[in-house]
Amino acid sequence: xxxxxxxxxxxxxxxxxxxxxxxxxxxxxxxxxxxxxxxxxxxxxxxxxxxxxxxxxxxxxxxxxxxxxxxxxxxxxxxxxxxxxxxxxxxxxxxxxxxxxxxxxxxxxxxxxxxxxxxxxxxxxxxxxxxxxxxxxxxxxxxx
Length: 144
What we know:
The structure is a single chain. The chain is mainly alpha-helical. It folds into three domains: 1-42; 46-107; 110-144. It is built from five helices and no strands. It has helices spanning 2-9, 15-37, 49-72, 86-101, 113-143. It is flat, with a radius of gyration of 21 Å.
């Protein structure tokens, strides 16, 4: 990868910087693992429903805007030295952050079986529609 960056893109990559980053990540991992062994946990729960809604709606807006920019391929999001566009990177980071934030969200109230089935059916319908839209966009991008 370094050879590719140096030969084809003419970017100077300093091994010292990469080594320091790798060592810092290793030290952080070891410290967190040691804390876990000693029984020290860092746990955060979001209790405020307004913050939860703000986070989820902003995530949806970021996803929609990134998808629109992927479709129309704005030159603002082009990455001259990389292999992934910035809007695709934003979309991927948004998905990762949402996946990491789900356990922090407040728990829902207990619902009866009938209401649970109704909510699950509605969520499955919305998820399938969203998957169909994204798959059609990705297929459209690959064809063109």
